């Protein structure tokens, strides 16, 4: 049987929109129709994605997360959408999403219940995979709540991978497998990549700087384990949700999330309200140069190169012998600070040998000119901000 590694999908990190973080488990459509998890919400987001440049920028998936289901399976044992909130069912919604040139993602759980208490896929892996395929689903986010043991968890993730491939439909497989293993044992990333197209390593992202910072700190701490496994067909997911355009991040912190998710070769799934998003947030999320770094075909994940007081220096090898370089200022007090480093640091000394051109991508795009191998670079960075360069 083909494994996820061989399903030909996710050759670059997937991009799209998902409801979790911004819309959580809103199920009371009578009280709050604009903010409940419903057919209407996904139709309206699909319309925005097609009409306002999101699809053309590369955001192709529109993903349903937890809380879409009815409380019980149907008489044939199949999962079913909540009939009040999804009156047309998932197949009709998938057809609509596809008509907009987009793809539909859905959510289930390896255990007997989802994290929010809806029916899970345990003992129904083959049936659920067939159901999702028959509905025209293009991505499955498979959570790890309510599994009775680590053995059942691992078996469930393997089983669903094979079941999805058996359907004959191309379905990207997004796993939470390592996140649920980590408290007890070190994940076997080689095995996980055999079965999954991307995999969650850390806690849910929140709409806050402390959440973004903790994800970056965790990634840097574990980079020796996780960076080498990422590549075309399989990606580390630091929690894919981009919370840019919501409430918790300053402008500089939004720039940091966008820049660092590009450096980390992370899946880019926005969780925001595209019906109410500022022009600045839209411009940042649709920035073609940053997206090109994230989607670079070489498929290498970036890593932290150096840490000095409040500064972090990250690099990511790109195709065409280029590098993406991020300078992140962790300081949360005072004003902009300068960080100076030698270009011989970059790419094991090869990035700028004998000379290189440097272009700033974020927070604003401009050319910095040509530098020699022995030059030093001084970068001014705002507190909690990032300057993203292409060398």
TrEMBL record:
Swiss-Prot/TrEMBL GO biological process terms: glycoside catabolic process; glycosphingolipid catabolic process; oligosaccharide metabolic process
One GO CC term, this protein: lysosome
Q: Which reaction does it catalyse?
A: Hydrolysis of terminal, non-reducing alpha-D-galactose residues in alpha-D-galactosides, including galactose oligosaccharides, galactomannans and galactolipids; a globoside Gb3Cer (d18:1(4E)) + H2O = a beta-D-Gal-(1->4)-beta-D-Glc-(1<->1)-Cer(d18:1(4E)) + D-galactose; a globoside Gb3Cer + H2O = a beta-D-galactosyl-(1->4)-beta-D-glucosyl-(1<->1)-ceramide + D-galactose
- Enzyme Commission no: 3.2.1.-
Sorted alphabetically, which SUPFAM superfamilies does this protein's record hold? (Trans)glycosidases, Glycosyl hydrolase domain
UniProt-listed InterPro entries? Aldolase_TIM (IPR013785), GH (IPR017853), Glyco_hydro_27 (IPR002241), Glyco_hydro_27/36_CS (IPR000111), Glyco_hydro_b (IPR013780), Melibiase/NAGA_C (IPR035373)
The segment(s) forming the Alpha galactosidase A C-terminal domain are 299-385
Against Gene3D superfamilies, the record matches this protein to: Aldolase class I, Golgi alpha-mannosidase II
Which molecular-function annotation in GO is an example for this chain? alpha-galactosidase activity
Its annotated function is as follows:
Catalyzes the hydrolysis of glycosphingolipids and participates in their degradation in the lysosome.
Quaternary organization: Homodimer.
Protein name, entry field: Alpha-galactosidase
């Amino acid at each position: 049987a083909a494994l996820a590694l061989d399903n030909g999908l996710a050759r670059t990190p997937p991009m799209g929109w998902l409801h979790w973080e911004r819309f959580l488990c809103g199920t009371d459509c009578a009280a709050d129709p604009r903010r409940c998890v419903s057919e209407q919400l996904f139709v309206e987001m699909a319309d925005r994605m097609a009409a306002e440049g999101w699809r053309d920028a590369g955001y192709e998936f529109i993903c349903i997360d937890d809380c879409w289901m009815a409380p019980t399976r149907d008489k044939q044992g199949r999962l079913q959408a909540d009939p009040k909130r999804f009156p047309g069912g998932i197949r009709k919604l998938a057809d609509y999403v596809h008509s907009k040139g987009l793809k539909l993602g859905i959510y289930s759980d390896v255990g007997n219940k989802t994290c929010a208490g809806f029916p899970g896929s345990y003992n129904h892996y083959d049936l659920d995979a067939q159901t999702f395929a028959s509905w025209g689903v293009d991505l499955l986010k498979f959570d790890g709540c309510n599994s009775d043991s680590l053995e059942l968890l691992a078996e469930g993730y393997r089983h669903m991978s094979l079941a999805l491939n058996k359907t004959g439909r191309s379905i990207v497989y997004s796993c939470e497998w390592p996140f649920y293993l980590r408290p007890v044992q070190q994940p076997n990333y080689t095995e996980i990549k055999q079965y999954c197209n991307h995999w969650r390593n850390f806690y849910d992202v929140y709409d806050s700087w402390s959440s973004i910072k903790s994800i970056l700190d965790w990634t840097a701490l574990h980079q020796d384990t996780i960076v080498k496994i990422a590549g075309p067909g399989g990606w580390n997911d630091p929690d894919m949700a981009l919370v840019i355009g919501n409430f918790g991040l300053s402008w500089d912190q939004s720039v940091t999330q966008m820049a660092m998710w590009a450096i980390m070769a992370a899946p880019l799934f926005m969780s925001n309200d595209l019906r109410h998003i500022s022009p600045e947030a839209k411009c940042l999320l649709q920035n073609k140069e940053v997206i090109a770094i994230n989607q670079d075909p070489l498929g290498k994940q970036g890593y932290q190169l150096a840490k000095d007081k409040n500064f972090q220096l990250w690099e990511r090898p790109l195709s065409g012998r280029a590098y993406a370089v991020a300078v992140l200022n962790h300081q949360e007090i005072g004003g902009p600070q300068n960080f100076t480093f030698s270009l011989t640091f970059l790419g094991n000394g090869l990035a700028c040998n004998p000379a290189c051109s440097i272009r700033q991508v974020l927070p604003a795009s401009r050319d910095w000119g040509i530098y020699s191998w022995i030059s030093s670079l001084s970068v001014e960075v705002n507190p909690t901000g990032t300057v993203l360069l292409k060398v």
